């Protein structure tokens, strides 16, 4: 009984939050993880895939995350 | 009498309608198309996978045109993933944990919920890891989600065997050797089954050697991870 399903969902939410707050100009570009031009031929390296994933999470999840965080906070305040 | 029957019929229809809205029955049905001999053979294979030779699934061909349309159902093909064994093993696992709590007089009904929840959490965690690695490694084979769930659910069979040994008051050395054996068997089974998911033969030409190597490493890591998942659950 290490961790329940809600605990796991919480962990995932916190991880996505962590990815979403990485700043493109101040942080990612400095360590060479800034957004690159996508390789149209598909044979990308692991790093390129990760960079893509981060930028996708940052653009796509920003607004849903607000709602998800509110739901999680309410759940933890009331039932946690 | 007539009125009762029509009421039951209407109820059935209502349930069916609502069920179809939430669950895709047509996609789910082949996973439960099992026979007794399939279940027995699959359980044997899960406990002793070392001598099994052929791990590819059999393609189903259309009767009229001869084109391939998906795979054969588990009833006719032992290598096809089913959901019957994982679901049953999951329920059995939850009950067995409750029994083992009962033998040490620690049983309370509240045990059942957290056990099921943590088992589900392990399955979801494994599923997320696989999906993430499939994305990062740029693997383009489209595996149905239910296949992955089935493969990660098979580990409950090994866990059940380990818990049975634990329940029979065997010495801890026997328990650990049984646990290591079932872990290795589950890992090996997963290694051979998922090989055709992660290293598709058809696109062998487009996979570069370093990429292939990375995928094999991922497969091996995944099978070693089975020990960890099983240890959490035992």
UniProtKB/TrEMBL annotation, chain A:
The chain crosses the membrane at residues 6-23, 59-78. GO terms for cellular component: COPII-coated ER to Golgi transport vesicle; endoplasmic reticulum membrane; Golgi membrane. Its main location: membrane. It comes from the Eukaryota. Keywords: Membrane, Protein transport, Transmembrane, Transmembrane helix, Transport. InterPro entries: Yos1. It is found in: Membrane. It holds the Pfam family Yos1. GO terms for biological process: endoplasmic reticulum to Golgi vesicle-mediated transport; protein transport. PANTHER family: IMMEDIATE EARLY RESPONSE 3-INTERACTING PROTEIN 1. Belongs to the YOS1 family. This is Yos1-like protein. It comes from Linnemannia schmuckeri.
TrEMBL record, chain B:
Keywords: Endoplasmic reticulum, Golgi apparatus, Membrane, Protein transport, Transmembrane, Transmembrane helix, Transport. The keyword Ribonucleoprotein does not apply. It is found in: Endoplasmic reticulum membrane; Golgi apparatus membrane. The keyword Nucleus does not apply. Its main location: endoplasmic reticulum. Pfam families: YIF1. One of its GO terms (cellular component) is endoplasmic reticulum membrane. It comes from the Eukaryota. It is a multi-pass membrane protein. Belongs to the YIF1 family. Has a role in transport between endoplasmic reticulum and Golgi. This is Protein YIF1.
């Amino acid at each position: 009984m290490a961790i329940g399903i809600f605990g796991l969902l919480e962990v995932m939410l916190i991880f996505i939050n962590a990815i979403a707050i990485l700043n493109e100009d101040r942080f990612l570009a400095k360590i060479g993880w800034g957004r690159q031009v996508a390789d149209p031929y598909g044979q990308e390296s692991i790093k390129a895939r990760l960079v893509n994933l981060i930028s996708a999470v940052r653009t796509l999840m920003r607004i849903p995350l607000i709602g998800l965080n509110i739901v999680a906070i309410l759940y933890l305040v009331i039932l946690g | 009498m007539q009125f009762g029957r029509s009421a039951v019929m209407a109820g059935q229809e209502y349930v069916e309608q609502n069920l179809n809205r939430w669950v895709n029955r047509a996609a789910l049905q082949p996973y439960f198309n099992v026979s007794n001999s399939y279940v027995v053979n699959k359980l044997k294979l899960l406990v002793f996978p070392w001598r099994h030779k052929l791990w590819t699934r059999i393609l189903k061909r259309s009767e009229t045109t001869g084109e391939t349309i998906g795979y054969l159902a588990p009833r006719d093909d032992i290598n096809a993933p089913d959901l019957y064994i994982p679901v049953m093993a999951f329920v059995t696992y939850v009950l067995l944990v409750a029994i083992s709590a009962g033998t040490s007089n620690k049983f309370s009904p509240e045990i059942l919920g957290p056990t099921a929840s943590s088992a589900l959490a392990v399955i979801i965690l494994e599923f997320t890891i696989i999906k993430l690695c499939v994305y990062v490694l740029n693997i383009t084979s489209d595996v149905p989600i239910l296949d992955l769930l089935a493969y990660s659910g098979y580990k409950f069979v090994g866990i059940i065997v380990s818990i049975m040994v634990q329940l029979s008051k065997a010495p801890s050395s026997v328990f650990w050797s049984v646990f290591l054996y079932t872990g290795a068997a589950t890992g090996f089974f997963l290694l051979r089954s998922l090989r055709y998911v992660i290293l598709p033969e058809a696109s062998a030409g487009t996979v570069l050697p370093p990429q292939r190597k990375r995928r094999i490493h991922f497969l091996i890591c995944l099978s070693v991870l089975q020990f960890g998942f099983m240890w959490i659950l035992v």
